[in-house]
Amino acid sequence: MLHLLHTFVSVYETRNFTHTAEDLFLSQPTISAQIKKLEEHLQVKLFIRNGKQEIIPTKEAIFLYPRALQIIEEWDDTSQRLKNQENFRLQCIVGCSHTCAVYFVPKLIPYLVKQFPNVDFSIKLMNSEEVGQQMAQNKVSIGFIEKPERNEAINQMAIYEDELVLAGKKDSPYWLLRENESGLRFYNEIYLRENNLIPKILYVDNNEAILALLREGFGRSIISKLAIPQDISYEEIHEHHLRHFYLLTHKAIFKDVLREIAAYIEILVPHLIENKIL
């Protein structure tokens, strides 16, 4: 049955039987037969063919996809631990957008490690959109992002209110912008548009590089106040100066410990704010 779920997941993600056959080193008739066998076992239709190439998942397939990912992950994790004769510690991969990973999540990790001593935490840094994609594909356990993410498989909760400021010298003709998928790019573009500003643009795909340029007196950019060191000047902005960090969790959570971690974070963050740690 597990190999049928692997095939289903691949077809769901590629929307193409031929591509799945190539990815799994199987023939296309074999892929079709495996999907048919899974449909017969579940007594539902999983895909609808629309022409020769396009394949549309049914509502049953949409329901099954995150659960199939969880089943595959659980099996892979279990078999690997048994082979390695591990002490059965649990893994929690935290997917974070840049600002969250550098200035927010590190404040949480010492408390999480202490509260969950049998869990091995790891942090993966990416932009907000990639965190959402990795969550949807079950490649990370929980996520922290800087802008809302629309995905039917994910719960998102506003967990922290982040103040944005305009950093850099006022007379600089350059504006520093992150990549398209960045949460900060969104707020910078709003500010430029609403203030009718048309500066010269320098694109930078890393927060630390932006801070380094600002230290050199080059450029301006809207960034999180959490990230501002003492040697960089900034001014407060009054429009769109607040944004939220969001906690992402899977709607279908099969590991109780992940549910417990998410619930603990919801309690922990207000405590850290109250004690001015955040």
Automatic annotation (TrEMBL):
Pfam families in the cross-refs: HTH_1, LysR_substrate
GO molecular function: DNA-binding transcription factor activity; transcription cis-regulatory region binding
Signal peptide bounds: none
Keyword entries, A-Z: DNA-binding, Transcription, Transcription regulation
Keyword Protein biosynthesis set for record: no
Domain named HTH lysR-type: residues: 1-58
Alphabetized Gene3D superfamilies for the sequence: 3.40.190.290, Winged helix-like DNA-binding domain superfamily/Winged helix DNA-binding domain
InterPro entries: LysR_HTH_N, LysR_subst-bd, WH-like_DNA-bd_sf, WH_DNA-bd_sf
Database matches in SUPFAM superfamilies: Periplasmic binding protein-like II, Winged helix' DNA-binding domain
Methyltransferase as UniProt keyword: no
Family statement drawn from the similarity comment of this UniProt entry: Belongs to the LysR transcriptional regulatory family.
Official protein name in the record: LysR family transcriptional regulator
